[in-house]
Amino acid sequence: MTWKLKAITAELGENEISIDRDMLVGRHQDADILLQSAEISRRHAAFLIKDDALWVQDLKSSNGTFVNDIRVDDQKLLKDNDVVQFASIKFHVYASEAQPQQAEKVSEPVESPAVQQKETVIVQPAEAIATSEIEKTIDVVKEKTPAQQLSEQGMPELSARDAGVQLTRDGMPTSVGVPKPAPIPQGIDVHAQPEPAPVAIPETQSVADQQTEEKKNASVGLFTIITLVILAVIAWLFFK
To answer: Checking DSSP bridges between strand 23-26 and strand 33-35, what pairing results, if any?
Structure first.
């Protein structure tokens, strides 16, 4: 009998894993089923094969191992159609009869047990796969700009330049074309100077006018005071 796991969590896609031996589940690089998620412990759990029966064992993980939403304290015997869960990552467990190998595959060379290496199944969320693919695409698309290409090429040697170009002692070309200025529209005199705009100068009062105004104000004030005194004396005599 062959035991298999099929991912239920949407982030894992439709990954299918065959359990044909004791396998370690976790985030550690030595794990047989490598779950690259922060909520998975380094050595989270293990699948054990005992007399063609499949067991799951929790290895004191931080976020727990569950079978059909029940947390596993130590070991749990798995049955067909069970749901095993590591933290929030779920797999569907099902059993299938072992299929006999075809005759064509028998002729393929088989490595000796000493040479065979442990196969690691890496299961990671689709977001991580998408991110890695995007980074690879960006590296391929990146091209050097013309400025970077010129910077890497550097200045050409004097021997590589055009032999018909005459240079000065400083190495500058002598026949450099100077662009002509733009034509001046008709009816515009470039030598004409603009007429200055008139500036309004505020009128200021002279010192003599100020003194005359002050004397006039003092005389009016004195005349008013004298009038008030005379009226007061008349009123006093009238009512005495």
So the answer is: parallel
Asked if residue 85 lies in contact with residue 65, where contact means CB atoms within 8 angstroms, the answer is yes
Question: Are the CB atoms for 154 and 40 separated by under 8 Å?
Answer: no
Q: Do the domain assignments include residue 13?
A: yes
> Which CATH number covers residue 10?
2.60.200.20
Q: Is residue 70 part of a domain?
A: yes
- Whether residue 173 lies inside any domain: the answer is no
pTM (global) more than 0.70: no
70-71 sheet: strands from edge to edge: 16-19, 2-7, 89-96, 83-86, 65-67, 70-71
Q: 102-161 pLDDT, tens per residue?
A: 434 434 444 444 434 455 565 655 445 444 554 554 454 455 565 565 555 555 555 555
Residues of the chain with pLDDT under 70: 97-180, 190, 194, 200-205, 240
Q: How far apart are CA 215 and CA 220, in angstroms?
A: 9
Please count the structural domains in the chain: 1
Q: Residue 17 sits in which domain range?
A: 2-96
CA–CA separation, 212 and 32 (whole Å)? 114
Report the 10 Å Cβ neighbour count for 53. 13
